[in-house]
TrEMBL record:
Enzyme class label: translocase
Subcellular location: Membrane; Mitochondrion membrane
Function as written in the Swiss-Prot or TrEMBL entry: Core subunit of the mitochondrial membrane respiratory chain NADH dehydrogenase (Complex I) which catalyzes electron transfer from NADH through the respiratory chain, using ubiquinone as an electron acceptor. Essential for the catalytic activity of complex I.
Annotated organism of origin: Naegleria fowleri
EC number: 7.1.1.2
GO cellular component, one term: NADH dehydrogenase complex
The keyword Repeat is annotated on this UniProt entry: no
The keyword Cell inner membrane belongs to this UniProt entry's keyword annotation: no
Single annotated GO MF: NADH dehydrogenase (ubiquinone) activity
This protein's name: NADH-ubiquinone oxidoreductase chain 3
Family: Belongs to the complex I subunit 3 family.
Amino acid sequence: MYFLTEYYELYFYSFFILLVSSIILLLCYVITLKNAYTEKNYGYECGFDPFSDARNPFHVKFYLISIIFIIFDVEVAFFFPWSICIKELMFFGYYTMFLFLFILLIGFIYEWKKGALEWE
């Protein structure tokens, strides 16, 4: 019995969330108009027809740009924790982050010089 009385607020909020979400889903199903033309409901994906063959060749530049994006996105993921604990890290934290940025800068300059960022 102790277990039930201690967590009654959690049970209440869980039940309330399930109830509200169920009501919203039911209302969406009841209120929406039924359209026979179902192709209008599909998303428009990056300028490509969603009903065409999925095996279209992509230009290699798409892959190069995506790899560059992933690399610099990981850089931002390293910046957030570093910026939070910058006072505790002192000189070592500055040194390692600037070394990391220097390596990324060298890679970016290399990509730029090789023409990976130029669309032909």
